[in-house]
Structures are given as C-alpha cells and as structure tokens.
Amino acid sequence: MAATAEGPALFNPGEGTRGIPEAIFIENVEAICQHRKPADVVQKLQELYSKYQYMQSSLAAQRASLKAKLPDIVSALETVNHLVERKAEAAEGETAEYTYQLCENIWCKAEAPPSATVCLWLGANCMLEYTLEEAVELLRTNEANARTSLKGLDEDIAFLRDQITTTEVNIARTHNYGVKLRQKRTEEESASAQAIASPAPSVPAASREAKSSGEAAAAGAGTGAYTWKQEAEEVEVSVRMPKGGQKSDVKVTILVDSLRVEHAGTVLLEGALRHKCSPNGSTWTMTGSRVEVTLEKAAQEPWESLFAED
C-alpha cells in the first residue's frame, strides 16, 4: 500500500484500467486512523466513492450508445453485401428490384441497375460515396471496433463495480471504528469522573460550572435524567435507563432538529435541539445502565445548551 504525507494511501492511482484508480481494501483500520481522524478518512472515501459512481454512469452511457449503434452497422453491412451479390449475379443491362423504406411503416419497391458504388452515412449530416468493396471493408472494420470497444466497456464497468464494493466496505469499517473510539472515550471519561467524584456543589454553582465547561446535567423532558457534553464536531448525550432496562426495549429517534429516547414506550428524553445535527452521522448505543447518543453537529459551532428550551 502506497503511503502519503497523511499516512497510507486509500487507492492506487496508476494500477487500474483506463486510468481508473484501484481501491485498496483497508485491512488495518486502526493503522489508517493513526494519522487521520476516522471522520476525515470516511470523507476521503466518500469522495472516492462519488468519483467511482460518476465513472460508472459515464461508462454505462457510452455502452448504451454503442449498443444502439452496433445493429445499424450490422444492418448496413448486410445491405452492402446484398448489393455485391446482386451486382455479381446481374447480366449486362439487367435491372434489379429493391424494397426500401419510404417512411415509418411504409415500404416501396423500385427497380435500379446494379451499381458499383454506395453512399454511407458517417454521421453529423455527412454522407460519402464508396465502392462496394471499400464500403464492405469500412463497415467490417467499424463492426469489429464496436464489438472490441463494447467488450472493453463491459470489463471496465465490472472493474468499477469491484472498486465501488471495496470502497463501501472501507467506509462502513472506518465509520464503525470511529463509533467504537467515541464509545471507548465516553466510557473512560465516565470512569474517570466516578474515580475523582466529589460532593456535589449547590445547584446554582453546578449550573454555572456546567455551562462554562460545555457540559450539563438535567432531568430533561421525560422520566430519565441525562448528561451531555460537546466537542468540536459532535455532542454526546448520556441518558439514565430504568433499572433492569434492556437495549431491545430502547428506541432512539434522531432528527435534524430534535431528539427522542424511549424505553418500553416510556419517553425518557425528548426535546427540540438548540442547533441542528446530521442524523446520518449520529449513532447511539447502550453501555451498562445508560443510553449513549452521539450527535454529529451540522455546523462546527458551540452549543449553549442541548435543547432549545434550556
């Protein structure tokens, strides 16, 4: 795996076909994330994924266009071969009868003497006259080139599918690793806080201290108590579960501007968020007797409080 100043590369730019970069399967996600944050790696992978998707749509359009032209080339070649046969069989001065398409669904018959030349459409309103032998050679060459190009496009599209699949797997594994890191950090901070716990200060002092440090504890809208804290890119919310609560009974609803945590139909926490979050980048899990929710900020700005009404 090639390396860059930011760490191991995520693709090989020169080892694909037709200049298509080859995606590298990330075997050791931890090693990749030693040099960059998991979120940054996911962003780079998503950019690569978007490029692959664009390449795939472009190649698919080329393939569809080529498949539409190939029958016309084959039909033209058959027609010219027929003219060659008629010319060889016709006696001097003899005319031949032809059936041609006058317009859609209307065909007519015409008589014409054998000809040694034929006119072919080359596209862009351009028609050239060729001898029958030249026309046959040209059309055979065009047919062979079209079939070769079609085969190459099929191979490129299949190669792209493999790269897209590899990139999707890399994105999922890196994202999951980032979630595990956040969960581990939350557990360590929780354990550290319990180890150095001291008598709780009065309510006003606790409120001032929570606001100054970016953390808060409150009863919340519902029956469960919660705590929250924030970092530059995310907000972490910890909700206390009822005694004996099971993860299967927990339902967490994360919307752009609201959060709702339920247990067995009972709302533990609910409210309109102070600022918007990104639901796609937000996750939740259950650790011990608490539900840990990680909200990805839609904008990297400090939150004065978790909920708008606080």
Describe the structure.
There is one protein chain. With 310 residues, this protein is an alpha+beta fold. It has helices at residues 29-32, 38-89, 132-195, 203-213, and strands at 3-4, 7-8, 11-12, 22-23, 96-103, 106-112, 117-123, 126-131, 215-218, 226-230, 234-240, 250-254, 258-263, 266-272, 277-287, 290-297. Among the domains are: 9-91 and 133-187, Orthogonal Bundle (Helix Hairpins), CATH 1.10.287; 227-297, Sandwich (Immunoglobulin-like), CATH 2.60.40.790. Mean pLDDT is 82; it is low at 205-223. The strands form six sheets. A five-stranded antiparallel beta sheet has the order 9-10-11-16-15. It has a three-stranded antiparallel beta sheet with strand order 12-13-14, with no helix packed on it. Helix 2 runs antiparallel to helix 3 (132-195).
In a nutshell, what does this entry contain?
With 310 residues, the protein is of the alpha+beta class.
Mean pLDDT: 82
Overall helicity: 40-55%
Strand content: 25-35%
CATH-level-2 architecture of the domain at 9-91 and 133-187:
Orthogonal Bundle
CATH topology of the domain at 9-91 and 133-187: Helix Hairpins
Helix and strand pattern: EEEEHHEEEEHHEEEEEEEE
CATH class of the domain at 9-91 and 133-187: Mainly Alpha
Q: Spatial order of the strands in the main sheet?
A: 9-10-11-16-15
| Structural class based on helices, strands and sheet pairing | alpha+beta
> Which stretches are low in confidence, meaning pLDDT under 50 for 5 or more residues running?
205-223
Net shape: elongated
Distance between the termini: 50 Å
Protein name: CS domain-containing protein
Biased composition (Low complexity): 191-220
GO molecular function: tubulin binding
GO biological process, one term: protein folding
